[in-house]
Design a protein that fits this description.
By secondary structure, the chain is of the alpha/beta class. The chain has 7 helices and 12 strands. Helices cover about 20% and strands about 20% of the residues. About 40% of the residues are buried.
């Protein structure tokens, strides 16, 4: 967790972060022990029994973010680390993360690595070895937007199912992304019908061939100057990918949402539940594991939340 605290401290010093707080800022959230229910306060004598508190999901998440690369409201990787550390922790996940590539030790107890960082396909040999060891044991991946970019799309497509070459003119810029849901029965897409957001799509993709991706949603490429010659093409934008890495112990799962250029779309009521289900699926947990916010239990007679000391200080 030390890496996450240092990363969040660095984020707090960035002016770009202070200007954007779609979740109302990061607050300390209580810790939950994997597999255990949050403690319930005793009901007064004669009172009706209270319903059992929702159980912590136990999903162990590592958020791999990076330095912000675009203007206000776009590609805000540090803000995602801050906001979604809170979003996931409130739903019972155990969250760590940083602005650097995780070490093997940081991934030891991780179920799913959520990646929102430009050109994440560019890795040193040591980083690649760490990632491959993680995938061999069945660790999950979630990829947003240009995370799937890198210098070697032939290799990286075998990691997340599809990849984009760095530096190539391969984007619509800001344009309509009209989703056509392909697999309406998939639990990740439950309750989702065709809809449109304003974001950015890629179209010149290198796709994994064995196995292939499982498409959840396509989108028609908008007619923008940078997409000239590709307008009207139907290209997968949301998919899953499952593969057993060579020498691996079990299959790993990857969930990919190609959008995220405009940071506000992470809070879209059609997008956020889908992302939460995708994260849980990639972690090999029930897809609804992260859908319920776990109420903060109040400490009896103290006026503070359970796990919180006087003055709002979080007690380990």
């Amino acid at each position: 967790m030390r890496g996450l605290f240092l990363a969040l401290a660095a984020i707090a010093l960035c002016a770009s972060v202070g200007a954007q707080q779609p979740f109302g800022g990061l607050r300390a959230a209580p810790s939950y022990v994997e597999g255990q229910q949050t403690p319930a306060t005793s009901a007064p004598s004669g009172a009706a029994p209270q319903a059992a508190a929702p159980q912590a999901s136990g999903v162990r998440v590592y958020i791999r973010a990076g330095l912000k690369t675009h203007g206000p409201g776009q590609h805000d990787y540090p803000q995602y680390l801050a906001d979604w550390s809170k979003v996931l922790t409130e739903r019972g996940a155990v969250v760590d993360g940083s602005l650097h590539f995780p070490t093997a030790a940081e991934l030891t107890n991780t179920d799913v690595m959520v990646m929102y960082k430009g050109d994440a396909g560019a890795m040193t040999p040591e980083e690649k070895a760490t990632l491959e060891a993680y995938l061999k044991r069945g660790g999950g991946l979630v990829s947003f937007h240009d995370t799937l970019c890198g210098p070697d799309p032939d290799y990286y497509s075998t990691i997340v199912g599809g990849a984009k070459k760095h530096g190539q003119t391969n984007f619509t810029l800001e344009a309509d992304v009209p989703y056509t849901i392909v697999d309406t029965a998939n639990p990740i897409m439950q309750g989702v019908s065709d809809f449109t957001i304003k974001d950015e799509a890629f179209f010149l993709m290198t796709w994994a061939k064995s196995p292939e991706i499982h498409v959840l949603a396509n989108a028609k490429i908008a007619a923008t100057p940078s997409a000239k010659g590709h307008e009207g093409e139907m290209v997968p934008q949301i998919w899953t990918y499952e593969r057993t890495f060579a020498g691996g112990q079990q299959p790993y799962r990857a969930f990919v949402w190609m959008q995220g250029h405009n940071y506000a779309n992470f809070t879209d009521p059609k997008i956020q539940p889908m992302l939460l289900r995708g994260i849980a699926w990639a972690a090999k947990k029930p897809v609804d594991s992260l859908m319920t916010v776990i109420p903060r239990q109040r400490g009896r007679g103290t006026g503070t939340a359970a796990g919180e000391g006087r003055g709002g200080r979080l007690v380990p």
